[in-house]
Amino acid sequence: MSRNIYKHLYAVLSLALALLFAGCTDEGEGLFPNPNEGTASYMMFRIVAPKTMMTKVVSRAVPDVDNTDYWGDAYTSEADTDFDNALLKNEFNVFITQTDGTTITKLRNLICIETAVGTDNVIFSFSGEIPKDDVETLKTYSNAKIHIAANCGSDISLADGLDFSHAGQPSATFKAIPMWGVTSFDFTKLQPGQNDVGDIWLLRAMAKVEIVIGTSGDEPNLITALASASVANANTQGYVLPQEWSAVEHTKSLSYENSLHPLLSSAAISDMTPDDKTVNKIVFYLPETVNTGETTEITLNYTTDLKGNESKSGVIRFAKYENGIPTDTNYDIVRNHLYRFEVFLSGKSNQFIINYTVCPWQEYVVNPPTFD
């Protein structure tokens, strides 16, 4: 069986900023002392949540998503939730590294100093203090990097093996999606007081999966509610950092062929149910998983409530679907992507018909969740 190769992940990144948070304080006023007073040095950076941007790519992640040469705008009104963009304050880490990813120091006393909401984006400004003992060392680096590692612990090191153990639905131990991003800065220009780094784009380390009741078709859908879902043979652990994370100067320059970084931890995930708001959708989250053949094939098992108090179970494959039927072309589960399966049960054939789409995970939210 063949599998689709995602290329030019920068197209995903430019469409899918992950960090949206409020709870920022204006206590940052006066945070930066006069640069001429010889006081501490601070780094200020911004996280921008943009409106959807159409970005042309050479090779699209999944064929037949639409009939254009562009990444789509299919989910701008419904793809995200507060959970998707949540950031845990005590697990928000900012590292300064050499060009090869070796850590030099870590920012401390991080605060959100401003939130600006415009017609096209939401901008969050953050500040962090550089430890005084590291200031002179940093001034020798003309092209050091600033990495953000979020929602993956507080006492962590920035390394290939930085991992997490989350899969399935949010819980008391799965409170937010791990994220990472990077930019570069010329530290030979470092001054006391405020130093503006610019924008940092973040990438979620997990994929989002939705099973929804289909509404299209020439006949009524016999499914009235989704009852439960489970997953077989998907990884339950993942790496926060993509492959080749240390080789890129900016998040958007990361390409797919240098990014897929699965952590082999295949297991079953069960007891996933709709949320309290609707019985029309089951949503869960998965780490990256390579899906190359029958032994590692990923299946989604679900039950439905039908008219007449009946129930029926079916299987969904992570594969290319044609006319509602899966083909032998399997797809990997890739970070920062949304996978949606629309399920339709035909009364004529008594067979499930699946409409499958995958796209970059994107949303414009003017009321971001609390940064806590």
Descriptive account of the structure:
The chain has 372 residues and is mainly β. The chain is built from three helices and 22 strands. It has helices at 10-15, 82-85, 132-138, and strands at residues 2-3, 41-50, 92-97, 103-106, 108-117, 121-129, 144-150, 163-164, 179-185, 193-199, 202-204, 206-213, 223-235, 238-239, 266-272, 281-287, 299-306, 310-317, 319-322, 325-330, 337-345, 352-360. The strands form six sheets. It has a five-stranded antiparallel beta sheet with strand order 4-3-7-9-11, with no helix packed on it. A hairpin with a 6-residue loop joins strand 21 and strand 22 (352-360). It is elongated, with a radius of gyration of 22 Å.
Give the mean pLDDT.
Answer: 74
Shape summary: elongated
Which spans of ≥5 residues are poorly predicted at pLDDT below 50?
Answer: 1-36, 49-80, 362-372
Mind telling me the C-alpha Rg? 22 Å
Bin the strand percentage.
35-45%
List the helices and strands and how they pair.
Blueprint: E1 2-3, H1 10-15, E2 41-50, H2 82-85, E3 92-97, E4 103-106, E5 108-117, E6 121-129, H3 132-138, E7 144-150, E8 163-164, E9 179-185, E10 193-199, E11 202-204, E12 206-213, E13 223-235, E14 238-239, E15 266-272, E16 281-287, E17 299-306, E18 310-317, E19 319-322, E20 325-330, E21 337-345, E22 352-360
Quick summary of this structure?
By secondary structure, this protein is mainly beta. Helix content is 5%, strand content 40%. A hairpin with a 5-residue loop joins strand 3 and strand 4.
